Amino acid sequence: MRIFLRLSAMLAFFMAAPVLAQGTPEQREACESDAHRICDAYVPDAIAIEKCLRANVGSVSAACQRELGVAPSTGGGKKRKR
Predict the structure, then answer these.
(1) Nearest-angstrom CA–CA distance, 74 and 45
(2) What would you report as the CA-atom Rg of the chain, rounded to the nearest whole angstrom?
(3) Is the omega angle on the peptide bond into residue 72 within 30 degrees of 0, that is, cis?
(4) pLDDT tens digits, residue range 9-51?
(5) Quick one: pLDDT at residue 25?
(6) Cα 34 vs. chain centroid, distance in angstroms?
(7) Contact 28, 36 (CB under 8 A)
């Protein structure tokens, strides 16, 4: 009986893992268009898409950058000398 319970728990975990890897609804909403525009070759692999978006963070929308936890690019980047 214990083996059956353990196997059931493992099966439930592995069934839920792909759902957890897809991100929150906010992340999907903010990054879906960027994912298709920049990382279409990695669809439907959510982990590969996130790695691709992070690697191309300069081309990603500000909303997606916020959801990824990186500072949105301001476009400037260079400091002005006084």
Answers:
(1) 29
(2) 18
(3) no
(4) 555 544 444 444 567 888 888 899 999 999 999 988 989 999 9
(5) 87
(6) 11
(7) no
Judge whether residue 74 has pLDDT over 70. no
Cβ(64)–Cβ(57) below 8 Å: no
Q: What is the pTM of this model?
A: 0.59
Q: Where are the domains of the chain?
A: 24-71
Residue 77 to residue 74: CA distance in whole angstroms: 7
For the chain, give the number of residues.
82
Q: With helix as H, strand as E and coil as C, how does the chain read? A: CHHHHHHHHHHHHHHHHHHHHCCCHHHHHHHHHHHHHHCHHHCCCHHHHHHHHHHCHHHCCHHHHHHHCCCCCCCCCCCCCC
CA dist 57 → 21, 41, 49, 81 (Å): 19, 17, 12, 27
